[in-house]
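tokens incoming
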């Protein structure tokens, strides 16, 4: 056996378990789900006459549902606001912990730790903070009382609930994104910054003309990660608001903060419309793939311009 053949064999031996798991957990379910989206698949399909092909009926039903359309809109709004909040906070933290700061490694660890907490646990912790701690502080500092309704496990208003989700998402994910920015900032040649400083460039000019352009690749990565993570948000949505509070749209009651992933879950396991939920998941994947490709393409062009 030649060395090249041996290396190839070792490569496939180590890759095989991961590849098998990926095919079984991701690839096969994706194609099965794509097929079920065009059928009447449900837990009662056998009783109702068996599995049969229904064409685009599930997609048509989804787009006639105000709750699904609303969840699409609220997901887009949440994604845009969450992306902005996370990246602004993460970049600011990265600038802070790459500066001349004592114990900066300790701060890096501290900012990163919230990312290690599970989303469900995080949501329940912050639900307690919003519904109990902040209202208690609101008696002392009234401006803090607007986020929650004391004695009610649901947040008081749609805007407040969405703002609370963005606060929690930023607190959880900013530390992780910060580490990407830290790596990018530390790769900037110090000679450039020192030369600009000697030439009299202010910190703002150095940031705008040197740091941000040289971190362009990091922005592409972080924007992609925050876009996908925000669009797929589920666990914090479940534990923090459960999609509430309820509101009315087109004369029908809907959940005011039910993001798209939670809407798909509720359609499948609460309403027992598995094929409709699969059709919505198919649309979800398609839209997210298109948006992600456009975002990466635009950011890559910006890298060249910067």
């Amino acid at each position: 056996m030649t060395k090249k053949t041996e290396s190839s064999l070792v490569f496939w031996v180590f890759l095989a378990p991961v590849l098998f798991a990926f095919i079984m957990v991701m690839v096969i379910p994706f194609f099965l789900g794509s097929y079920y989206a065009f059928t009447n698949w449900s837990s009662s399909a056998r009783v109702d006459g068996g599995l049969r092909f229904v064409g685009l009926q599930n997609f048509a039903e989804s787009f006639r549902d105000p709750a699904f359309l609303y969840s699409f809109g609220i997901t887009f709004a949440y994604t845009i606001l969450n992306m902005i909040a996370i990246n602004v906070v993460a970049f600011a933290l990265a600038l802070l912990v790459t500066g001349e700061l004592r114990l900066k490694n300790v701060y890096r660890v501290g900012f990163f730790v919230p990312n290690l907490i599970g989303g469900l646990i995080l949501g329940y912790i912050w639900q307690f903070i919003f519904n109990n701690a902040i209202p208690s502080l609101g008696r002392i500092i009234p401006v803090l009382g607007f986020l929650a309704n004391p004695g009610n496990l649901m947040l008081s208003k749609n805007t407040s609930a969405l703002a609370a989700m963005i606060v929690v998402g930023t607190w959880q994910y900013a530390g992780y994104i910060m580490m990407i920015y830290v790596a990018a900032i530390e790769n900037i040649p110090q000679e450039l910054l020192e030369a600009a400083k000697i030439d009299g460039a202010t910190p703002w000019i150095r940031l705008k003309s040197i740091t941000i352009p040289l971190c362009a690749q990091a922005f592409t990565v972080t924007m992609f990660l925050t876009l996908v993570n925000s669009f797929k948000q589920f666990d914090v949505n479940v534990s923090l608001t459960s999609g509430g509070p309820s509101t009315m749209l087109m004369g029908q009651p809907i959940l005011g903060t039910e993001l798209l992933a939670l809407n798909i879950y509720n359609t499948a396991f609460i309403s027992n419309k598995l094929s409709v939920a699969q059709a919505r998941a198919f649309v979800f994947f398609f839209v997210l793939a298109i948006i992600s490709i456009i975002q990466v393409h635009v950011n890559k062009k910006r890298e060249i311009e910067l």
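note: Strands lie at 246-249, 252-255.
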